[in-house]
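Continuing the series of single-chain predictions for the mutant panel. This is the parent chain; the variants come on the following pages.
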Amino acid sequence: MPLPKTIRAVLTWIVLTAAITTFALVVDPIAEAASTKTYSVTSAVYVRASRSTKATILGQLAKGNHVIATGKAKNGWLPIKYNSRTAYVSTRYVRVDRKAATVAIIGPSGKKTAVSKLAVRPKAKTKTAVTKTYTKGTVVKVTGEAAGIYTKITVNGTVGWALTSRLTRNTDTTPDIVANYVTNAVLSLRTTPLATATNQVSIASGKTVGGTGVHSGSYSQVVYAGKVGWVLTGYLNAVAGTPAQYILPLRVTTVYLATTAAIQSTPAATGTVLGTLSTGTALRGTGATSNAHTAVIWNGTIAWVATAKATISLGSTSLDKLESYGKSAVVEMRQVFPKITTVYGWRASSDYSSDHPNGRAADFMIPSYKTNKAQGDAIAAYVIANGKRLHVTYLIWQQRSYTLSSGKWKAMADRGSDTQNHKDHVHVSFEPSPK
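Parent structure:
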């Protein structure tokens, strides 16, 4: 008996709906995004949280990577799928793919955790035989690459593909810790291995940090209080039982380069040159010398600089008691302004500020100052132009003060003598110098 027309219509609707729903469950996400287009990365580029070069950096893409666009480019920025959110890359560094890419970067490299039973396949295809199955909670490494509904993973050294839906949405980008260390001084946890980088947090002496085994120049990468950053290498004591390859050299003194100098792998004249450093650079020394070279800490191990180009004492107790920012500036300024032969630093007391007693100020005395104002002007101009790099807070010259944060000169009250009014010297104050 044939079904009534209305029932047949309902059944047809159910079948079609089921088919569409099933298709939606297995549709390839990258193919789905292909309607929006995929793009090739033409040069290394940062992935940012919003459409601005000042926005938070979420990751970095390498030349040759592909990304999935989530919308149209606007104001020079392309929205892309990245770590389970919409992020942005500059359109200057990407170009649209004529044919949608089959593998794209959808997040940073790092670690993910299996949220359910995890089957790993050698290829990103459902029909490929499963090579290994892992339990819920298994931690895997990811490169950020995805192909359709699969994510590329590494487990116990084996590379394969697993269903993206079986992994945590966000990627843990915290690097692996290979050794633990105890700080022996207050350290700044900087965002990059540079003295001018932002300090995320100050780490007290005696705190334990996790080392990643990665080093850059005078800095080592560590993990502390959930933050990843860089600290000066020479202040980390390896905990008992640390493997020999992770025990780092310790600082005994600080060495300042009196001129541009090469840093090399051995103290021999034929040692491999690791780089060339500028005047005033502060290096942490181990106290050792050999073959007219001084040992310094570099890239997590020992390197060497010519002793003749390095200095430990600046020539007076007054200058030797300066903090490191002040010392580096004095070394550099001596090189740039050789006619300045008298510089004062630390002193026990000061009528106007605590900078001199704290070792955070230097006075550059101008010879024949009454007829040589141009020399003081030149010094002041140099300090202002290089103030950020030299960690300057303010300077005083000719009864005026200049604060780096305001960028303006301000007249000062008459204090009496030429020295008190800073007409015979340029006073420079520096930021505190954390280790």
